[in-house]
Amino acid sequence: MTVGSPGYDLIVVGGGTAGCVIAARASEDPGRQVLLIEEGPDPQPVPDIVADPKRQPELVLKSPYVRMYDVERRDGSSFPVLSGRIMGGGSSVNNLAVVRPMARDFEAWTRYGGSDWSYDALLPTMRAIEADPDFGDSPLHGAAGPLQLHRGYHLDDPADPPAEALIRAAQDMGLPLCHDLNVAEPYGVCASPYNLKDGRRQSTAVAYLDPARDRPNLTVMAETTVTRVVLDGDRVRGVELRTLDGTRQVVEAPRVVLAAGVFHSPQVLMLSGIGPADALAPHGIAPVVALPGVGQGYHDHAVVYITFQGTTDLREDYVIPKVRLIAKSDESLAGPDLHVFIRPSIRMTGLPPLLPVSIHLLEHRSSGQVRLASADPTDLPIVEPALLEHPDDVAAMLGGFRLVTRLTQHPALAAFYGPLLTPAPDSDPMEHILESYVTYSHGTGTCRIGPVDDPGAVVDPHLRVHGVSGLWVADASVLPTVPHANTNLAAILVGEIAAREIARS
Amino acid sequence: MKLAGTIDIAAPATAVWDVIIDPTDLAACVPGVSAIRQIDARTFEGTVRASIGPIDGDFTFRSVLTRADFPAELVVDVEGTDSVTKSRVVVHIEAALTETGPSSTALSYRATITTKGRMAIIGEMVLRATAGVMISQVTRCLRARLEATAP
Questions:
Q1: Using the beta-carbon criterion (under 8 Å), do B125 and A356 form an inter-chain contact?
Q2: Helix (H) or strand (E) holding A261
Q3: Predicted model pTM
């Protein structure tokens, strides 16, 4: 069945972090009919388990709004990568951190996307996204954007003893105080901002989509799977979708933007015959546009937990820690490459308190991939993250391990942190790192930007899919390198860029 | 997740065997296990209580001795469910006893732990964090029980 009657001008596939931004911005023009399609549910009002940050562990561990992709380490053991499956996507289920990419991330992206992707070119957009009550309305920050920031803690506030101890120990190790981690090159002991308003999560479904929902030119379809992009030659004709009751139909529009995320944007492209020919053939999919970069170039952040015996119980907030360290794995580096968080204690009857510290490597020198498991759109794609495969990444993680062991031996923190337990002090920490790493769930790169003569590029610097007219990709998958930051704000930025580019088209 | 190691105990292999083959005896050495219930000669059930930050939960398990080749090798399979996410944890343990002297035994073990469900998100971090401490406490307890009674 083909449905063309509503006369949509734009279909946004995926109501995730970027998709909600695009749908809201695109529908600001009352002359443009916009359809937003999300595979997950769109519960109204937003359930408390999503909105209340105190319930975030429950949200991740118990709710139906998080999707797990089982991935393998090199030794064959597995761990999950997570994504959101609800309107707002990752911004509805993440840890609410609002962290900008660093200036050097933009510099890296200009090598693929040109000067439009520079820090200076995109700073006005970053300012327009946020309403920062602490630094807003300044050359670096905005005060009137849709995304409300909140810092529950400032570095000059009195903190509870573990946080005070962390700040003192880190300063003594040479890390400066970093009151604002959204400067061009943050470094040090940083107060963390979160997207919270009146104690409630500001996902892009709340901050962007909700104010636009009553517009007559915006249609929202939830619990609907886009099975492929429908092409007419090299031009987009619309999308084929399947609703919850199994009904399949084609909805027509001259413009389609895929914002289905780092796993599903490449999946939809490949199911539509757009991708590496040799990856499509095993699934009986006829290649329409040969783009070898689709699904390639996956980048993410590896995370390793190390655990100390605690001298006391530690209730540092799990979801919104007061401070994070933005640190260097090696003092000789030009800029930081790690996030470090102290975590609350693990308590088990009969055991002393155990205190984990998490080390997050913000760089990924090798590349993984996302590939089709089958031609069935409801089958999750296979994710091969290839984390910690490059020796420099392993060395950097090892540097993080050394940093944290030094940090916890500082007299201020030694009041809380006893001996190292995991990895065992007499073992090789490298083994622990390679056996136990997990992910920050910050995937990027599977539909990356680049010029038409770049064989790995999927979209041009304006986010248009190479070789197809009327088709864009706009989510974290277009970022050619993973930023030295959480990826939520970067995805919002991509959504804003896409909305601008589509409006110009 | 895989764990492996060797525990040296100053007791003959037969004495070590008698303790580790008895579910109640062995469970008494595992910290935090409560509500132990012996089902039959090879099976017991129990509960471990844990909290991670704001999450509190119980892990209820059933342990079955699936192979016992006196006095050298045994295989134990443990399967359990956590009360928070209803995830399933399956543990397969192979242990071997080697007499290293008239009254000394090396107990080597290899364990494979598989987590199915949401608990996989934090389960491995918790298991890795707790496994080392638990094993050292089990070791201390076994040594205390066996070496105290060794001839």
A1: yes
A2: helix A261-271
A3: 0.94
